[in-house]
């Protein structure tokens, strides 16, 4: 990765699941434990990948919908709480960094670029995952799905992150793998980079991002494209 100091943005906002970490195994394990408690068959890893991206409650809703059980209201709240308890006991056993994640976070830090993690996952488990990988020193702020009143794709979380970092939206880039990430950036009028290999049924090239890269190791390529726009 070769980035000229002149093209670094003032801040980069990263999604967590499917962007900085591959957490599908731990998430799938947790939701399958929950399904088993209600005598339901487990979902596959492929199904789990397509269900991640809009927070744990949406994952629970989609997992039960795959078993022809429609959840809403208080019932969904209860099962989402149960899911959080299960997942909270085992956040990182099988979760691993995405290729190039730590190196890129370190480069941001070394080049004076502020970093926020903006994820629809609740803030507490997100902080624990960041701490588990020793990334606290690289991440300036974490905005979780319960930090603000609205989640991605609403722009509120991105705008809040920029306020926390003390940077303008126009000086910031959002990096993510799902429609929620890129839609939130577009809704905030923020430049964005979509990363392949995450959790989405939509081809990344069709997400509407400013540009698309195959892995975080190609972040410099994405920056060069944005710099030429």
UniProtKB/TrEMBL annotation:
User: Keyword Chaperone, does the record have it?
Assistant: no
This protein's UniProt keywords: Carbohydrate metabolism, Hydrolase, Magnesium, Metal-binding
One MF term in the entry's GO annotations: phosphoglycolate phosphatase activity
Q: Which InterPro entries match?
A: HAD-like_hydrolase_sf, HAD-like_sf, HAD-SF_hydro_IA, HAD_2, HAD_sf, PGP-like_dom2
Q: Which GO terms describe its cellular component?
A: cytosol
* GO terms classed as biological process: DNA repair
Q: What is this protein called?
A: Phosphoglycolate phosphatase
What is the originating organism of this protein? Ahrensia marina
Lineage, uppermost ranks: Bacteria, Pseudomonadati, Pseudomonadota, Alphaproteobacteria, Hyphomicrobiales
């Amino acid at each position: 990765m070769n980035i000229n100091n002149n093209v670094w943005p003032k801040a980069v906002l990263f999604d967590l699941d499917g962007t900085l970490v591959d957490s599908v195994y731990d998430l799938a394990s947790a939701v399958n434990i929950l399904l088993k408690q209600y005598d339901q068959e487990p979902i596959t890893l492929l199904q789990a990948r397509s269900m991640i991206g809009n927070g744990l409650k949406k994952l629970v809703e989609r997992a039960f919908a795959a078993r022809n059980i429609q959840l809403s209201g208080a019932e969904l709240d209860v099962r989402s709480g149960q899911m959080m308890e299960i997942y909270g006991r085992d956040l990182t056993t099988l979760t691993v960094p995405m290729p190039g994640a730590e190196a890129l976070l370190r480069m941001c830090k070394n080049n004076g670029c502020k970093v926020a993690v903006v994820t629809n996952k609740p803030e507490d488990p997100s902080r624990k995952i960041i701490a588990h990988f020793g990334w606290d020193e690289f991440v300036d702020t974490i905005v979780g799905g319960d930090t603000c009143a609205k989640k991605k794709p609403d722009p509120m979380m991105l705008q809040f992150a920029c306020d926390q970092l003390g940077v303008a939206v126009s000086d910031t880039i959002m990096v993510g793998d799902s429609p929620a990430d890129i839609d939130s950036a577009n809704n905030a009028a923020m430049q964005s980079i979509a990363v392949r290999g995450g959790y989405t049924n939509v081809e990344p090239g069709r997400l509407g991002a400013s540009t698309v890269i195959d892995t975080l190791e190609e972040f410099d390529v994405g920056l060069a494209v944005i710099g030429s726009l």
